[in-house]
Fold 4-hydroxy-tetrahydrodipicolinate synthase.
Amino acid sequence: MTHTAPSAPPPFGRALCAMITPFTEAGELDLPGAQLLAARLVSEGCDGLVLSGTTGESPTTTDAEKSALITAVREAVGDLVPLVSGVGTFDTRHTVELARQAEKAGADGVLVVSPYYSRPPQDALEAHFREVADASGLPLVLYDVPGRTGTRIEPETMIRLAEHPRIVAVKDCSYDFLGVQKVLGRKELAYYAGCDEHILALYAVGGAGYVSTVANVVPAQLRAILDAFEAGDTPVSARLQQRATPLIELLMAAGLPGTVTVKALLNSLGLPGGSVRAPLRPAGRDAVDGLRAAYEEFIAA
């Protein structure tokens, strides 16, 4: 018995990586590094890439750098790999500008986070997303991450937003599994797990797949979780998810931001990562050693 897929195929594939933005040691955008990393991620199982998200350090990259990144990655992976670009800011006008810019640069969709810091009420939040959706021809992925923004996209708001023809997906970091299932039961929104520990759980109740930070370092192993479930082997899928838990915890929940831990691990593996931009700071030697040991243990399992 295989997993029953949603009535419509996921708009951007199932296995998406929230890609880091490589920088040089001088802190400049490393476009050749981004191309190399993107090509590796696709060759090892990623269906699509999310650029300039949280993991991609979007708050500290310029508008011009965001466009250049789309253009460079498109050149590296071709036209058949969906590229979603983060355009969310705390300013509706700026978000609209970034959405139009992403469309011109060749993105296939935009990731729009709830406006942070200002904490708009639900009616204002809904109006914000609708204005961004109306601003370009690109489909939208709503990014629900109240732990960072201070504002939840409530399930009833999500259900209303799903009526918009260009609001097609959600990156879910709400930690509200009940609320997610309420929306899934009523709308065709493609729900992507934004927290790696939820990859299998969300997929099993009708989710579309994942947008993963951890996939920057182990893309094939995370893809295998979905593939095993699709093949009808739930016990194997569960074991693969459980096996990834220590690495997920160390990368995402050990006190350092995922951008910092992932770049540290990529650098230690000789892959493009580079520095992080302030206010983030690089991981210390002990943290890097711990990450590398956890990675080696996971790969060897």
